[in-house]
Amino acid sequence: MAANVLVRPARTSDPALIGSIQARAWGMAYGNLLPAEALAVLTPKELTPVWREAVLRPPSAKHGVFVAVTDDLVIGFASVGPSPDQDATERVGQLGVLAVDPLHQRAGHGSRLLSAVVDHARNHGFTALTVWVPEADLARGQFFGSAGMVPDGARRSFVGAGEITVYEARYGAEIGESPGA
Description:
The protein is α+β, with helices and mostly antiparallel strands and 181 residues long. It has helices at residues 15-30, 36-40, 44-56, 109-123, 138-146; strands spanning 5-9, 64-70, 73-82, 92-100, 128-134, 150-159, 165-174.
């Protein structure tokens, strides 16, 4: 294990790294689930501006982007904010993305990122957390299940590049209130 492993809020220098990590991680995770044309648009060049906006100009204080760092190298990230789901109350947060560079997976970075997201969510008044998981992504479903998140019965779908329909299941967990609340 690395000597210096931590999770911190994303900094102004992190968006390009976040875009690169997302492109590699999603390419690895979804290479067999999505057509090549869908993956072709998931490039650091396309993703970096989105992450620059999220890091530099979050929509609210309830939004957060966190990075996992090992020996000063950003190797993963996660984003969180209020749930946009129609059935959610103002006390429900949503994990937008959690990704770890494929070369650094299975070393606890995802769990550390999820813990930081839960802390942020609690500190901003959320008492529950949800995440949408592609149904075909069994590893991601197992990861969130092992963290105590369970499918709540909600499903959605969207048509991606190549006219491929992707189905997602929503996982959720009660996270309680902030200890100081």
